[in-house]
Amino acid sequence: MHRSLQGDPKEVTLVKKASGWYAHISCELPDTPKVEPTDAIAVDVGTTHYLTTSEGEKEDNPRWYRQAEGLLRKHSKDLSRKKKGSQRWQKQKHKLALHHERTTNKRKDFIGKLVYKLYHHQKNNVLVAEDLRVSNMIQNKHLSKSISDASWVTFFEWCASIAERDGLHFHQVDPKNTSQTCSACGQKSQKKLSLAIRTFNCQFCGTSLDRDHNAALNILLRAACAHRGERWVTNLTETRNLSVDR
User: Which residue stretches of 81-143 are H helix?
Assistant: First the structure.
């Protein structure tokens, strides 16, 4: 057991993986009361960088599958050369499954540490992200592998899970035009910016920002506007009712 149990054990699930058998123990814990929102940060996820925060900090994208692709190809080729059902085939199949599991574990470890860092190391109790329809985005044949490798759905699930466990806040906002709108003046770019353009230059107020940083600021502004009914102890930023149709 890698850590002591907290709460009352309610259910045990046995899971078989390539590396062995595991017991998942589910415990019932009392609800953690939500803390009062005081410090917020927004993130804009991407494929070039894993995410960019509203403070301008970037997190590199490890690209786990891309790194493992060479060895994966070798294991798959070795498996295809062996007689199906033979002892050597079974052994090679286990090697391939173990390689997939290690890649998955690296991804989960990175995401878990990243979410913990955004909340606890940077002392934020509100995290805001876009409400992306990832299942639709992976239909793009040029970006599907990179989007699947980034596993944004897992990232959002971990954000919500840790927020619920520790009494923090996680919000998702409409992603429409967050990359096409100036975070300073609220004007929408007259020309749609392609993904190749990494700097947002506003034709109205002259603001020049990194594209992802500008989007993260818009996400934070949109969340602050949407939650005007809540009491924010600190002044997160000067918020205004920005219209995405402008």
Answer: 87-116, 134-137
Q: What is the pLDDT of residues 61-70, one digit of tens each?
A: 999 999 999 9
Q: Does the global pTM surpass 0.70?
A: yes
- 164 burial type by CB count under 10 A (0-12 exposed, 13-18 middle, 19+ buried): middle
Q: Specify the pLDDT at position 241.
A: 41
Range of the domain at 26: 8-226
Q: Does residue 2 fall inside a structural domain?
A: no
Catalytic residue among 212, 230, 238, 245: 212
Q: Which candidate in 44, 57, 149, 245 is catalytic?
A: 44
- 149 flagged as catalytic: no
Whether 186 is covered by a domain: the verdict is: yes
The question of whether 212 is a catalytic residue gets the answer: yes
Among 60, 69, 130, 238, the one annotated catalytic: 130
Catalytic residue status for 39: no
According to DSSP, the β-strands at 49-53 and 40-45 are: antiparallel
Q: How many domains is the chain partitioned into structurally? A: 1
Which of 107, 99, 119 has its CA nearest to residue 61?
Answer: 107
